[in-house]
Amino acid sequence: MPRDASELAHRLAREAEAVCRHYLSNGKREGRYWLVGDVQNTPGRSLYVRLYDSPRGPAGKWTDAATSEHGDLLDIIRESCGLHNFRDVAEEARRFLKLPRPNHEVAPKVARPAVQRGSREAAGRLFAISRPIDGTLVELYLRRRGIEEVHHGGSLRFQPRCYYYPHDQDTPEIWPAMIARVTDLDGTITGVHRTWIDPEGFEPHRLGKAPIDTPRRAMGDLLGNAVRFGVAEDVLTAGEGIETMLSLRFVLPAMPMASALSANHLAAMLLPPGLRRLYIARDADAAGDTVQAVLLQRAETAGIEAIPLSPRLGDFNEDLHIFGLDALRAELRRQLAPEDISRFLLPVTTVV
Questions:
Q1: Which pLDDT tens digit goes with each residue over 302-348?
Q2: 8 A C-beta contact, residue 205 and residue 185
Q3: 12, burial (CB in 10 Å: exposed 0-12, middle 13-18, buried 19+)
Q4: Domain boundaries in the chain?
């Protein structure tokens, strides 16, 4: 890059958000990124512009997830303005850098009573200010994990600016996150689970989680409670992870399910009154063995039929991701009670 171009790109990067607001006005800020359809300012969410320096790279760099194109803010100016030579791009960049910056601060916020970080009240507030997942990074994250249809029953939301506190630090980072509602048997929210998402390309080994030390955290009152997908009456499938249970809901969309978030919490999860059959969607590890034994004993004591569901690999999301929907459907058909196959199992659809 010529020296003049490098200097201009560096100056623009210091005001990356202002550049995006001006030239990519059909997009919007989400966390540390500006999202828009493409470099021509088409509405959408394919192109991510990094607004701050990070270990992933400097501010001002962008990637279009749909085309794999990438570049800097000079490229944004060139393409969005339809310019063809560097002299015109440089002139436009210098003109922009001389413009006064509008104040984008929102109206003063109404003061709210402080709530303790990590409390049930804080969890309820976070879920309330988050939004539906339709068309958001949450859907993309789950699709990357093989979950093409998300039957969550309102238990998931998207928060584009979710605080993440690194260990031993009081200053938060901000990342987009999937927010899952934890409730008691009456449906009252008692906590939330946060999965922070990487908006800038999904590294295969991370499957879309943000590049931070602990991209999953829960807060609130968790013991005995769960993230619930559907209302259980006589039949329930319970397991650990959210993605595990959503994978099963992809195949069994009418089956009520509960994600207890961990093996210990699954073993202690409260069972709804009137339950007559419990499917235990165990993980294939030592903790899964222990949970299965505990729940089998608890179910027997309560007069509930308990049936373990075992994955071929580590868990059912891994099965779905590696083997696909049809293979998971066939595996569940083999393990479900006969009357639940016709009641809950998603039939095979033939595409003509």
A1: 999 999 999 999 999 999 999 999 999 999 999 999 999 999 986 65
A2: no
A3: buried
A4: 3-98, 120-344
- Which SS3 state, helix, strand or coil, does residue 97 take? helix
The answer to whether 93 touches 60, Cβ cutoff 8 Å, is: no
- pLDDT above 50 for 109: no
Main-chain dihedrals φ then ψ at residue 64, nearest 5 degrees: -100, 110
Which run of H or E residues covers position 196?
strand 189-196
Q: What DSSP character marks residue 141?
A: H
Q: What is the CATH number of domain 3-98?
A: 3.90.580
DSSP string covering 21-54, please? HHH-TTSEEETTEEEES-TT--SSSSEEEE-S-B
List, for residues 265-291, the tens digit of each pLDDT value: 999 999 999 999 999 999 999 999 999
CATH T-level assignment (fold) for domain 120-344:
Dna Topoisomerase Vi A Subunit; Chain: A, domain 2 (3.40.1360)
* Buried residues in 121-149 as b, exposed as e (16+ CB within 10 A): ebbbebbeebeebeebbbbbbbeebbbee
